[in-house]
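tool_call: predict_structure(chain=1)
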Amino acid sequence: MITIGIDPHKSSLTAVAIDASGHPIGQRRFAVNSGTFRQLTSWAEAWPQRRYAVEGANGLGRGIAQQLAAAGEHVHDVPATLSMRARLLTTGGGRKSDSADALSVAHVALYRHDLKVVTPEDQTTILRLLSERRDDLAHERARILNRLHALLRELIAGGAATGLSADKAAALLRTVRPATATQALRRDLARDLLADLRRIDQRLKDNETQTRDALAATGSTLTNIHGVGVVLAAKILGHVDDVTRFRTADHFASYTGTAPLDASSGDQVRHRLNTGGNRQLNAALHTIAVCQARDPGPGRVYYQRKLAEGKTPAEARRALKRRLSNVIYRRIRKDQQRAADNVA
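tool_result:
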């Protein structure tokens, strides 16, 4: 089996082929254009038994990785951190070049058997795109609200109360009677921001409608879990992708950053907080944990039991997040198994 490592860039990609022992047997650089895929596959035809490893298949390498996967090629996603470590461990002082990077990518794929397999984009990709778009809109809305709040503070004695909305801002602006040209300009700018705020609010509503339809198409039952709404379910499914790539619930918890890290040494056994993992999934689990710790139900019972054991609120909440990671993992696996049975 030949492994072809690919180091992608915006304007070019470099491919290096290695044999089963890790020795380079071919190398080529391709310009990124409409013919890149055809040129790459034509070059790779020299090795019928082959597989590809693409660095950052969800980033710069997404285009070529998806084209290869759609063509039925076996493609692995190699994180940039792994290829960097592989390059630093080679002889040569960790010198960096496109060919050296592509060789490191191939070596990682050769010796690591737990890499994510790239699959053609499906409904989970749609959910992730919608989720990311919602995050962008929410950040833009917060920026507009902050600026509008600042202008209203300068126009109205006492400013505006917290929890400002488009309707509340419009009502406040109707009371403004500018006495100077400067105040008149502030009012006009506030009206422009109000129009932007209404536009963003409408786009957020449209995004939620699209997300709800896309989530329904997956047949997911994640929203049956207390604290998981349409938005959080879409974010979780969009980032998890194919849950079968996680062998166990513990593997999944490590990916979500909810499993503590072993920091033992000698006879001392201890663990520390995991600040790695997928931070989007970690944030989603945190939101669910906060909801369940607040509202009556099994989650609150578990949270209170941890408090009774002497844990701080933050520690009890992290323990609940770890338990929720298992619940989410089992639920997604069950949903995907049911969908597979229905297709069969």
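agent: The radius of gyration is 26 Å. Proceeding to next step.
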